[in-house]
From TrEMBL:
A Pfam entry, by short name: Por_Secre_tail
Cleaved signal peptide residues: 1-19
Keywords recorded for this protein, A-Z: Signal
Keyword set includes Transcription regulation: no
Top-level taxon: Bacteria
All residue ranges annotated as the Secretion system C-terminal sorting domain in the record: 296-373
Record InterPro entries: Secre_tail
Protein name per Swiss-Prot or TrEMBL: T9SS type A sorting domain-containing protein
């Protein structure tokens, strides 16, 4: 499973391929699906949940503006233009359909991490526009695809599906393809994309909640409980959504016969073909304190970093920062707490240089610092 946390971040954080734009000094605008919409100088719009059907209307990002499309959101628009150093950021698990023209120009940047970005008619990158990300763009426009000199298109993981399955229309300007271009058979490495898994303790009961961004052939989730992280007991089963391109929320309530102040939970996700994937463990204190705690694993690591956090205070935001040896912030995100404990991962740190890093967690007046090594 991959895990994706929402966070708002005016500059691209360097060093991580999927670091999000930091919104600073920008004014927020609300979506207006009834009209053509232009985001002007230093404006941003964030689509956090639901469906936004612009029909025959268009969205234009201009002059350092930012549009963020979160996991689970569906956006349908006639034309989508990114220009004037503007940023389009599409999270993994979002679903975007551009019916006519998808244009990135004038040093605009489109960073796409979802597997469900569909360009029905035209793709054009010109005048320094860039299209990047770890996701996939499905191109249905035939031969109306062009990358001009000075622009670049490089999207996908090691074996991504590219725009044109036959690659017949790639780079009319003879710009070299990036080394991520290539495999039209690319599929996501895991069938379920997890957004979060957390817990809340009240009156001796543990309320577990989790959400997925997308699911493919998902059968069900088995909830496992342990008091020592060695012996696990099946305590419940929750049916999965099967095949979805939008956010699914789940919950399960457990009342453990407490033999310890600490209880551990895992989710075991089953596919329809019997394959499984485990998420966790989630450490739950039956007497939650306000002392922020964190565990980082694996450490050393090469491509991803799991973080298990306890002692969270509901209503306080949690900020996660990664600093390099020079004290430069190379990754940052902020999220509102909805439980006392939380476990998730920073999905892709493969682009970080090898060396020592500081992970800083801040919530309210509390701060925890952990070190990890990137191999």
């Amino acid at each position: 499973m991959k895990f994706y946390l929402p966070f708002v971040v005016a500059l691209l954080c360097f060093g991580l391929s999927n670091a999000q734009p930091i919104v600073g000094g920008h004014s927020e605008v609300t979506p207006n699906t009834g009209d053509d919409q232009t985001l002007n100088t230093n404006q941003y719009m964030e689509l956090t949940s639901g469906t936004f059907d612009y029909g025959d209307k268009s969205i234009t990002l201009d002059n350092n503006s930012i549009l963020i499309v979160r996991a689970g959101v569906t956006l349908e628009v006639k034309n989508l233009s990114v220009k004037g150093t503007a940023i389009l950021y599409v999270e993994r698990g979002a679903h975007v359909t551009v019916e006519e023209d998808f244009i990135v120009t004038d040093t605009g940047n489109a960073e796409i991490h979802t597997l469900y970005f569909i360009a029905e008619s035209k793709i054009e990158a010109k005048d320094g526009g860039t299209i990047t990300g770890t996701g996939r763009v499905t191109y249905k426009g035939g031969d109306d695809y062009e990358v001009d000199g000075g622009s670049s298109v490089c999207i996908g993981t090691e074996d991504p599906e590219y725009y044109d399955p036959a690659h017949a229309n790639y780079n009319k300007s003879s710009e070299p393809a990036c080394n991520k271009n290539g495999n039209p058979g690319f599929n996501p490495d895991l069938p379920v994309e997890m957004i979060f898994f957390n817990s809340l303790v009240e009156n001796g009961e543990v309320y577990l909640s989790w959400a997925t961004a997308t699911e493919q052939n998902a059968s069900h989730f088995m909830v496992l409980r342990s008091f020592d992280k060695n012996t696990w007991e099946e305590v419940g089963e929750v049916e999965a959504g099967g095949n979805t391109n939008f956010r699914q929320d789940y919950s399960y309530t457990d009342k453990p016969n407490v033999v310890s102040n600490v209880v551990y939970y895992q989710l075991l996700q089953y596919d329809l073909d019997g394959k499984t994937e485990t998420f966790g463990p989630l450490t739950v204190s039956m007497n939650p304190s306000n002392n922020l705690e964190a565990e980082v694993f694996p450490n050393p690591t090469s491509d991803h970093l799991n973080i298990a956090i306890g002692g969270l205070v509901i209503g306080h935001s949690l900020t996660i920062s990664v600093l390099d040896k020079l004290g430069k912030t190379v990754y940052q995100e902020t999220n509102e707490n909805s439980g006392n404990s939380l476990v998730y991962n920073i999905n892709d740190i493969s682009d970080l240089e090898s060396g020592h890093y500081l992970l800083i967690l801040t919530s309210g007046s509390q701060k925890v610092v952990r070190r990890f090594i990137k191999q």
